[in-house]
Write a structure and sequence with these properties.
CATH architecture of chain B: Beta Barrel
Structural class of chain B: mainly beta
Strand content of chain B: over 45%
Mean pLDDT of chain B: 88
Largest sheet of chain A: none
CATH topology of chain B: Lipocalin
Number of domains of chain A: 1
Order of helices and strands of chain B: HEEEEEEHEEEEE
Number of helices of chain A: 13
CATH class of chain B: Mainly Beta
Number of helices of chain B: 2
Shape of chain B: globular
Number of domains of chain B: 1
Low-confidence stretches of chain A: none
Radius of gyration of chain B: 17 Å
Structural class of chain A: mainly alpha
Oligomer: heterodimer
Shape of chain A: globular
Number of strands of chain A: 0
Order of helices and strands of chain A: HHHHHHHHHHHHH
Strand order of the largest sheet of chain B: 1-4-5-7-8-9-10-11
Number of strands of chain B: 11
Helix content of chain B: 10-25%
Helix content of chain A: over 70%
Low-confidence stretches of chain B: 1-21
Radius of gyration of chain A: 18 Å
Strand content of chain A: under 5%
Largest interface: A-B, 28 and 27 residues
């Protein structure tokens, strides 16, 4: 079983990486220096969706489970985001930081929401707040060094490891896809930033992470503390804002990546169970 | 008395029956006797072995029409988080979204829609099985084992065995289909007690 999972992970990394590299370039150059540059960040979500459909089957609409809702959230997010990017609708992009996590958490956790249990509502409120913080920090780094993509990459890898150890292999797989797609986008932006992390990236890729984060907290048996630590990854650029070298295009992303490893390592250590074996044991 | 009820039950199975959804007015309510009921499943793993498991928490009742079993009705509810295969790490994986997704879909339910007789003590029960939020019809082969009063407490018990098969992929449980068979065999050993 471990071999199957590893094979799937490999397929889930190579395809999104290649797709993100290709789609970023196509959008950037096919649509011109103005519109093309504005919308090319949507490549992360597009590569994610293509890979998701290739590795897993595309779910029927309406989706029932949170895992089935994920591709639809990313699809709706990237379509809306591409429109906002193309129209330069800056105020709507800022509003998405609050509205999009509300939509995601409300849809994923509607049973808990409508159940009106105090513990469930408190959990949803915390997850919503985390979603707003995550998207706010991603939106803050839409231009300049690609800190938004670096933090999504680091958080996805860390959350995938935690989910895998917690017996949620399918969540680890989609996080692997997200990390690889983000990696393909990053290659266009390092060592020199070329493409902004616009609304399509925010609502598509950021929305994907918030959806998976919400699913992990609500519906898996992975460590909630370890998962919560992954939200701190998105604060890494904030903690390093007074260090000048962070603003250097080539070095900055590497520094942020290195700082992001701290909460990831702590989270993985918390989730690690000595002698726990593989995720499956099936 | 015990002999009489057994004869009535046996006669009921011998009668021509018609598939209907609602229980008749003559139906008597039996509920699952949990300590003596097992809801079992098994699935082929890579062609090497079959892994078996069971559910520890469930509820169910049978509106049992002894005169015409086709007018009987069965409902059951299983708590997905109670899945047990005798290996804790695997059970945790089974509770996660890869399989039963027990936190998002805590209940597995079954409601019979028709019961037809196929032999003296056998029948086919078709019903709606809801798993992971997906409802599909499933047909179980049912054997009526025994209806009798217990010497211990003088209460009337009815015992049934039901077997069937589902395709877990039909319900969206698609994890590891290349390695873990989509076909899941089900076996229910149900003891019910008259209310």
């Amino acid at each position: 079983m471990e071999e199957i999972i590893l094979q799937t992970l490999i397929r889930g990394v190579g395809l999104p990486l290649a797709a993100a590299i290709a789609v970023t370039g196509i959008l950037r150059f096919a649509l011109g220096a103005d519109v093309g540059r504005a919308v090319a960040g949507g490549a992360i979500a597009i590569a994610f969706l293509v890979s998701f459909a290739a590795v897993q089957s595309w779910p029927d609409f309406p989706p029932r489970s949170s895992g089935q809702k994920l591709p639809y959230i990313v699809l709706f997010g990237v379509v809306i985001g591409l429109a906002l990017d193309a129209l330069r609708a800056e105020s709507f992009r800022a509003a998405a930081v609050v509205v999009w996590p509300a939509v995601i958490v409300g849809w994923i956790g509607w049973r808990q929401l409508t159940g009106l249990g105090a513990a469930d509502l408190a959990t949803l409120a915390v997850v919503f707040a985390a979603g707003v913080i995550i998207l706010h920090r991603l939106h803050a780094h839409r231009e300049g060094p690609p800190f938004a993509a670096v933090t999504i990459l680091a958080a996805s890898v860390g959350t995938a490891a935690i989910a895998f150890m917690g017996g949620a292999a399918s969540i680890a797989l989609v996080l692997g896809i997200l990390a690889a797609a983000t990696g393909g986008f990053l290659l266009w932006n390092w060592p020199k930033p070329r493409v902004p992390f616009g609304a399509a990236a925010l609502m598509g890729a950021g929305g994907a992470y918030v959806t998976i984060f919400t699913t992990g907290i609500l519906f898996t048996e992975t460590s909630r503390i370890a998962l919560a630590l992954m939200a701190l990854v998105f604060l890494a650029p904030l903690t390093m804002r007074n260090f000048r070298m962070v603003n250097r295009p080539a070095i900055g992303p590497l520094v942020i990546g290195a700082v992001s490893i701290v909460p990831v390592a702590i989270g993985v250590a918390i989730a690690f169970e000595p002698g726990g074996g593989s995720t499956s044991n099936f | 008395m015990r002999k009489t009820t057994t004869i009535i039950a046996a006669a009921a199975f011998a009668l021509p029956v018609f598939a209907i959804a609602a229980p008749s007015a003559a139906a008597e309510k039996f509920v699952l006797d949990k300590p003596h009921t097992q809801i079992l499943f098994s699935v082929n793993r890579g062609g090497w072995t079959k892994i078996s498991g069971w559910f520890e928490k469930f509820d169910g009742e049978v509106m049992f029409d002894q005169a015409d079993v086709s007018k009987s009705k069965v409902t059951a509810k299983i708590m997905a988080e109670s899945v047990n295969t005798g290996f804790a790490a695997r059970d945790r994986h089974l509770r996660n979204p890869d399989f039963f997704n027990a936190k998002e879909f805590p209940e597995i339910t079954f409601e019979s829609t028709s019961i037809t007789k196929t032999g003296e003590k056998t029948g086919k029960m078709t019903g709606d099985l809801t798993l992971l939020g997906v409802t599909k019809p499933v047909t179980l082969d049912v054997t009526f084992n025994r209806l009798a009063a217990s010497r211990r407490n003088n209460r009337t018990y009815a015992g049934f065995t039901a077997t069937g098969r589902i395709n877990r992929g039909d319900y969206g449980m698609g994890f590891g289909l290349r390695f873990i068979s989509p076909v899941v065999d089900i076996r229910i050993e149900a003891l019910t007690v008259k209310q």
